[in-house]
Design a protein that fits this description.
By secondary structure, the chain is of the alpha+beta class. It has 14 helices and 32 strands. Among the domains are: 267 residues, YVTN repeat-like/Quinoprotein amine dehydrogenase (Methylamine Dehydrogenase, Chain H, 7 Propeller); 44 residues, no CATH class. It is found in: Nucleus, Nucleolus.
Amino acid sequence: MQISSVNDVKIYNLSHGKSLPEIGKKRALQKKDVDIQRRMELIQDFEMPTVCTSIKVSRDGQFILALSLKFERLFFSFTVVAFDILSDDYSKLVFLHYNRYVEFHSQHGHYYKTRIPKFGRDFAFHYPSCDLYFVGASSEIFRLNLEQGRFLNSLQTDAVEHNVCDINPVHQVLASGTAEGKVECWDPRVRSRVGMLDCTLSSVAEGTEVEGLPSVSALKFNGSLTMAVVTTTGQVLLYDLRSSHPLLVKYHYYGLPIKSVNFQDHLDLVLTANSKIIKIWNKDTGKVFSSIEPQTNINDVCIYPDSGMLFTANEDPKMNTFYIPVSSTILTLPQELEESPESTIYDDYKFVTRKDLENLGLSHLVGSSLLRAYMHGFFMDIRLYHKVKTMANPFAYDEYRKDKIRQKIEESRAQRVQIKKLPKVNKELALKLMEEGDNEEELSARKKKGKVGALPSILSDERFQVMFENPDYQVEEQSEEFCLLNPIVSKVGQKRRRKKLRLLTEADQEEEEPEGCGSSDESSDDDKSWVDEVREQRRLIYEEGRDRRRLERKQQDCNTTLLDQDSTQNQAQGRKPGQKPRFFQIKAGEEFRSFVDVARKQKLQKASLEERLKLEERSGTVNVADTAVGSKQLTYTLKKVSHESDTIA
């Protein structure tokens, strides 16, 4: 038995577990297998040779009929579309085959067969008139009267094809679901249509994505006025027959066609199932009650009358049996049948991995009967393990004894005073957190609120360990963001200083409390100081930005001056703006003074002697000639020649 709880509702899977072998092998296994000894099978051998396609319960509740791919009733056709139970027990059965044949079976087996004009998909039995109504790939609803043994006039509808049909057990109205998404209701007494519901427009709501046309895949009556219609696109519509609009529309959100719909009257529930899940919800409010999701795909669902037990036909030989407690009086029964959640304990075996086998030197035993493969290792006899362990490691007891001694020493050290080590990253933050860990004000506040206990520490929390290990989380106190948050940090520091001051005042009982520092004005003074500190930090940040801008402007002016000097030098050297400077080689024995002197010398060398003399006379002139033997200074003075003496002579 498996117990699952969805939405706080316990659901018992009464058929959970592996399939048991035949009776002879089962008795042999019961002596060895503890799991089989503890198992309780409420329904014995509740499985099929292959997959199960449909399942029903007789009206007297004594028989369960399941339809599979292999039969013991020797059908002439191997594909059965639908079947129904005509009697209270299993003595009268009707089977609709894929090849249009209808077979009637009694208790002993096959009784009679006939054929309908078109391929059928579903049928319903009308008890007052003994008529079988067949729907399928035709616009007509065929009538076969079992009392007269002949076909009667069919009902002509406006639909192209019909998928399903059902008859209301109270007023015997026949409802047929069409492939166009409509439901037609007929009165068998007058053989005329009494109403039609268009489920296509009602099922497609705003914001709902539908792939294809919502055809009717199943329908079911509940009482005289309630009818549930499900579609191939996953919608469930709950109707009151007096209204053409649905009372409730539910969506499965799987995009799969819904195969079955049933009602549970004790809890006012609706059970709808597609191939993946069975959803259970309240028929008045639409609130989800619970859900069941088997391990294999679902083909059909059947509810046992007047109980919380339901059966499912699956794509698996085993048919599932689920139970939902419907009242408090029956709740104690499944609780008594609950298997204890005891895990299997292998007392006589030891689990070893391949690495353990290599260390013990037992790798050659893989594949033998001494090792039993399990998950990522093997089970071996505990006696063999201890024997080999002793031979492989004779000093195992000494190691065990040393480990025990070390554990005792560590336990004794734990009672000593532990030194708190600061982490490598964010040491200042860790120090503040350590100092604030025993905040008396917060502890008293928690006690007033009734939350007594140790406050969670960030340093000991695994979620914040990376903050004190990874350098990327280092707090930069010089950043602008930290400066804006600095008043808050300062406030925490003031609180810490007030705490230390309070401890000092308690130690020194003679010291009196200063005036004007009452506890009532403390919060207002703190707020005022905090605002002042924020303003001060903003002023400092503004001044830092202003100084930085000044420095940038000064650097820009300096660069502009250097550029002006370069342009002046270009003009002095006779270069055009933007022209690159030329390089000169200094001769041996010469002293380099400046590029201006070099340019002047080159200009004088190209000038004539007369021009050089005039230039030296104009400037005062001292000509310095540098040679290898030294330097000489020459001064030229022009003397006036008198021509009078020559005339007299």
